[in-house]
Amino acid sequence: IIKKKKTEIDFLNGKIVELGLKHGISTPVNQTLTCLVRFLEERLG
Q1: Any residues with CB less than 8 A from the CB of 5 and at least 6 apart, and which?
Q2: What pLDDT does 44 receive?
Q3: CA 45/CA 4 separation, integer angstroms
Q4: What span, in angstroms and rounded, lies between the C-alpha atoms of 44 and 4?
Q5: Coil/strand/helix, residue 11
Q6: Are 30 and 16 spatial neighbours (Cβ–Cβ below 8 Å)?
Q7: How many whole angstroms from its chain centre is CA 39?
Q8: What gap in Å lies between CA 37 and CA 11, rounded to an integer?
């Protein structure tokens, strides 16, 4: 984020969120981290 490069958040935490939704498993920490990093990427990048 500091170097204004896209992170790997979607491939890491985002995938966990996606799999959780698919299997009915709550992943609140991964969901929050994914949203926060995406926000920072858009805001700072």
Answers
A1: 45
A2: 87
A3: 5
A4: 7
A5: coil
A6: yes
A7: 9
A8: 12
Q: How many CB atoms lie within 10 A of CB 40?
A: 14
3 state DSSP class of 30: helix
Q: pTM value? A: 0.84
Q: List the structure tokens of 45.
A: 């990048």
Say whether pLDDT at 1 is over 90: no
What pLDDT score was predicted for residue 4? 86
* Coil, strand or helix at 43: helix
Tell me the domain boundaries of the chain: 13-44
Q: Tell me if 19 sits within 8 A of 9, measured CB to CB.
A: no
Whole-angstrom Cα distance, residue 12 to residue 25? Answer: 16
What is the arithmetic mean of pLDDT over 22-38?
98
